[in-house]
Design goal:
Mean pLDDT: 76
Radius of gyration: 16 Å
Number of strands: 7
Strand order of the largest sheet: 3-5-6-7
Shape: globular
Oligomer: single chain
Structural class: alpha+beta
Strand content: 35-45%
Largest sheet: 4 strands, antiparallel
Distance between the termini: 25 Å
Low-confidence stretches: none
Length: 119
């Protein structure tokens, strides 16, 4: 499997990643088939935002939830890049595999949020 990685400003790379496995019944394996660039993706890709974000966090200018979502060193690579897609989500329900088409927004550090419509 390949994953698009933000390495540093202006540098993205496709890297090998391990095949995903389900660890709990609340998880799903997501296979994107349409990806989109978020309007804010260009900010960390073309501008240094780590230093201003760290300063804003230190001065309590940002809500503490920002640190929870982005970590104490926001937008410092390497990290998986991109977070908007339409995908097929494979999950287990009552010991049977099911799938759903989803529009998802992935958060950098801790998974995703979104809605799925089961088929």
């Amino acid at each position: 499997m390949h994953q698009l990685i933000y390495v540093k400003k202006r540098v993205l790379e496709w890297r090998e990643a391990p095949e995903p496995t389900l660890q709990s019944p609340q998880e799903a394996i997501v296979r994107p088939f349409v990806a989109a660039r978020c309007d804010t993706d260009v900010v960390p890709l073309f501008h240094n935002v780590t230093t201003p974000m760290k300063l804003g966090l230190a001065l309590h200018y940002f809500d503490p939830l920002v640190r929870d979502m982005l970590g104490s060193d926001p937008f410092r690579g390497p990290y998986p890049f991109g977070h908007e897609c339409v995908a097929e989500a494979h999950f287990q329900m009552h010991e049977q595999w099911r799938y759903a088409t989803c529009r998802l927004w992935f958060r950098k550090r801790d998974g995703s949020v979104g809605r799925c419509h089961q088929r």
